[in-house]
Each structure stands twice: as structure tokens, then as C-alpha cells.
Amino acid sequence: MPSSYRVHRVVDADPQTVWDLLTDAPAYPSWNPAVVSLGGRIAVGEKLAMVSVVAPDRTFTLTVDRLDAPRTMVWSGGLPLGLYRGVRTFTLAPLDGGRTDFTMAEVFGGPLAPLVGRFVPDMTDSFEQFGDAVAAAAVRG
Q1: Nearest CA to 87 among 113, 68, 69, 119?
Q2: How many domains is the chain partitioned into structurally?
């Protein structure tokens, strides 16, 4: 398993539109084919329950660590005591013409990363689908 994943898109919508899309947890399955469900409220300190198409039989528990609207959002999850941890960062930057530079990256680490990483599904395609879905859904508004 790679120790990180990253997707980048230039979105033909302003950062606030993209931000509104990314911070509406219950709506994720309606626009994002990589997500089966996302339960919870996207607010600092809140827990999210994500089910993705790469592992539809597992629920990943994530914590919303940071929100800096409409620029940065950080989620994390993993094993207790930092033995294995994934940190997903969403970054939005305004571009000319009302467009948004969107990046989503996830970095995995911790002492058990080499062992646990063998059991984490490859998320390359899921990240690409997520990027495409953000770009398409934000344009639809």
C-alpha cells in the first residue's frame, strides 16, 4: 500500500460552492460514486462514519480535526495511541475566473503502518473518482 494518496482538480466553481459540497456529509453518496455513505456532522471534533466502495463491508471512523472555511478541512482516523493513522486533507484555493484549485491528500503513518498497510485497500481509483465527482458536482451547483 502506498503511504499516501493525492488527487488534484481545477474545478469550474468558486471555493465556497466546492466547500458547501464537501461539508454536507449526508449528500456525499448523491454526488460521489466513491462513497457509499458518510454519517455524522462535519464540524471540528465530530466523528464521521464513512463507508467507501473500496471496502463496502467496513465502516471507517474519522474525526474532523480542522475546518478553515472555505480553504482547508482535515479528517483523521486509525488505531489508538497513534499506532496507525491516516490524515486526509482537503485544500481549496481560489483561481481566476471563479474557479477552484482542489486537492485531496491522505497520508498514512505510525509504527504499525508497514503491517496494517497491507490490509488497507488501494485507494488510487477511489481518489480519482472523488476528484472527478467534486469537479462535476460543483459545476452542477
Answers
A1: 113
A2: 1
